[in-house]
Amino acid sequence: MWQKEPPDITSTLVVPPPLAAGEVKRSMPRGRSPWQLARRRFRANKLAVAALLVIILLYLVAALAPFLAPYDPSAITDVVQTRYLSPSRAHLFGTDEFGRDLFSRALYGARISLSVALLAMLVAVTFGTIYGAVSGYVGGWLDNVLMRGVDVVIAFPKFFLLLILAGIFEANVGALILILGLTSWTDTARLIRGNILSLKEREFVEGARAIGLPRRLIILRHLIPNAISAVLVSATLMVGGLIAAEAGLSFLGIGIRPPTPSWGNMISAGQDALLVAWWIAFFPGCLLTLTIVCFNLLSDGLRDALDPKVLMRRYL
Amino acid sequence: MSWYILKRLLQAIPLLLGIATITFLIVHIAPGDPMDVFMEKQQRKELDPRVIEALRHRYGLDQPLPVQYAKWLRNLAHGDLGESFRYRRPVLDLIEERIPYTLQITVLALLLGAVLGIALGIISAIKQYSLLDKVTTVTSLIFYSMPEFWLAVMLVLAFSVNLRWLPTSQTRSLDYELFSWWGKILDRLWHLILPVFVLGVASAAGTARYMRNQLLEVLSEEYVLAARARGLSESAVILKHALRNALIPIITIYGLELPFLLGGAVLIEKVFAWPGMGLLAVEAVEARDYPIILATSMIAAVLVILGNLLADIIYAIVDPRISYVAKRAA
User: Fold this and answer.
1) Mind listing the pLDDT tens digit for each residue in A6-39?
2) What is the spatial distance between Cα B60 and Cα B53, in angstroms, rounded to a whole number?
3) Residue of B14, B144, B219 with shortest CB distance to A296
4) Poorest-confidence range of A195-204, A206-215, B110-119, B255-264?
5) Closest to A158 (Cα-Cα) out of B264, B109, B201, B108
6) Quick check: pTM over 0.90?
7) Minimal Cα–Cα distance from B73 to chain A, Å?
8) Pairing with A119, which of A176, B67, B86, B278 sits 20 to 30 Å away (CA)?
């Protein structure tokens, strides 16, 4: 009953854990930057660091796919001999209905799935940051109009919007990136706007204004860096969501279309062959889940490392 | 209270108008001719151009865009969603047929997700750092991250293909018509198990994660400390003081989760060949059936707006601290 009590109290009150005491002494008085503190806290989170490493590894593997893939991902040889081979040492993930090596296809699929999501996130964050900054900084009627626009996009069920856009425009990869990005920017816009609105009134910005710092520098040095940490957390989370969204669209046959492999359309092909070859759908899904789990863990880790509330709890 | 509801309803009107405009623009700016739905390109060359003109005229495609837009809005206001190009039937009829199927899986999944998610979240928070908590946290992270359609395919593989316990797809067995009314209900439930489980588990995983954090936060509040200091039993502290306050934000989360649930339903309906609105939308996109695309998006948006409205109203009822005036959607 009472056994849970002590950790609760220490986490809300001041006492730092004994091991961290040295750190506190070193870090606090010398005034390390918040980013340095955040990096230190992030490194202490083993799970998040592991997730980051896995993500880096996945991107490396995707980049090096042409060198790592044992077979040509679209090579069709003697179909009768090579189709529907179950996983073995020669074909780690087995082969599909055309006898194509699924491990090689999964590697090339990683290139598509991972880069589409990352680029779409960049589109979304860039657009959202500009949109939110304009809205928050200019304010007034423009802010009002822009935010009603955000409300409309949010009220639109996102997957339906994606479905319409990707389906009707018969998107190629570039268009798909744009479509995914332009349906995902609302969180960033709101975060940036909210942060800029509240930061504008804070003492340190007032102080910067008082010592005569030009407005450009106030925005660049004080407003954006303080807002960007929240964006970083949501952007990481967004990549996971975008990977899932692209996979879903490709599964429906309107994202990345065969013969270009993506994890989503491999699962779709696997569903059609479920009776004869379970491995076709199985492995791409495992990779998808692993990747999204890692992005979620990374996002959690970044949130804990960057959240000033956690900072206060531990270092005040 | 009724003022608040009225006000929120009025606020929904510009949202709907915005959504109507966006869908209309997307669909009409898109490349590709809806006439392709009626006939192959080859066939069209052979056909009398006057026939094509007549068809265009019939569906109003020969008019300028602003006129089509104004017409569409006026019909929309009258509840007329147009006629499907492909089925040549009123869209409203088609959607009326499909919507019960979507509601069956989403409502049941919502319930499963809420019950399972809240229960797991509470257990996890109360027994923080126990083995049970760790297992729950890891499992919910995995299910939260896992693409639902893949989970669906894997469950079909396990329970339908290999074990043969559950049906692979469709809404009813082949001999459905021979069953008694009771047998029919059982048969439908039988077919509902997999789709509802997949959607429900995904929703439960998110809820469990949120519920755990929420309850942990509330348990560190001073009024909980005060309740413990008064010597209340742990169960009284949790049930009477902590849980009530931790549950409130969950309502909003459910309002926000609705679009994801509907989006997930699209994929799940595709996997299980479940003839709901999502499958209708997918088929319509493939066939460029504009009226259906417009209508399904509009209806999905209306469902989402209504869901959020409902969540806000319930929120205002359970949490009297929220002033009706100041309340903004989170």
Assistant:
1) 444 444 444 445 555 444 444 444 566 777 888 8
2) 10
3) B144
4) B255-264
5) B264
6) no
7) 17
8) B278
Please state the rounded mean pLDDT for residues B301-329: 71
pLDDT given for residue B34 in this prediction: 61
Residues 6+ apart with CB under 8 A from B162: none
Q: Could you tell me which residue, A30 or A186, shows the higher pLDDT?
A: A186
**Which of B146, B228, B297 is opposite residue A164, by nearest beta carbon?**
B297
Q: Kindly report the CA angle at B105 between B102 and B108, in degrees rounded to 5?
A: 135
B128 in contact with A, Cβ within 8 Å: yes
> Which sign, positive or negative, has the C-alpha torsion A204, A205, A207, A212?
positive
CB spacing of B263 vs A160 below 8 angstroms: yes
Cross-chain Cβ contact A274/B18 below 8 Å: no
Region A155-168 average pLDDT: 82
A12 contacts in chain B (CB < 8 Å): 220
**Residue B263 touches partner A, C-beta closer than 8 Å:** yes
With contact defined as beta carbons under 8 Å apart, do B230 and B241 qualify?
A: no
- Mapped onto helix, strand or coil, the DSSP state of residue A94 is coil
What per-residue string of b and e applies to B256-278 under the rule 16 or more CB within 10 Å gives b?
bbbbbbbbbbbbbbbbbebbbbb
Q: What are phi and psi of A151, to 5 degrees?
A: -60, -40
For residue B83, the cross-strand partners are B90
Judge: B271–A254 Cβ closer than 8 Å, yes or no: no
d(CA B128, CA B240): 19
Q: Which of B128, B147, B156 sits opposite A247 (nearest CB)?
A: B147
At residue A266, the 3 state secondary structure works out as helix
**ipTM confidence:** 0.83
| CB contact residues (below 8 A), chain B span 270-289, against chain A | 270-271, 281-282, 285-286, 288
Sequence-separated (6 or more) residues with CB below 8 Å from residue A30: none
Query: Bridge-partner residues for B90, per DSSP?
Result: B83
* A-B Cβ pairs (cutoff 8 Å, strict): 157
Convert the pLDDT of each residue in B212-238 to its tens digit.
Answer: 988 888 888 888 888 888 888 888 888
Residue pLDDT, tens place only, B121-146: 999 988 888 898 899 989 999 998 99
CB–CB contact B285 A164 (8 Å):
yes
Phi-psi region of B279 (alpha: psi -120 to 50; beta: other; left: phi over 0): alpha
Residue with token string 């991902």: A73
Please name the residues between 43 and 102 in chain B that touch chain A, using a CB distance below 8 Å.
none
First to last CA, chain A: 29
Query: Considering only residues 213 to 242 of chain B, which have any Cβ-Cβ distance to chain A shorter than 8 Å?
Result: 219-220, 228, 234
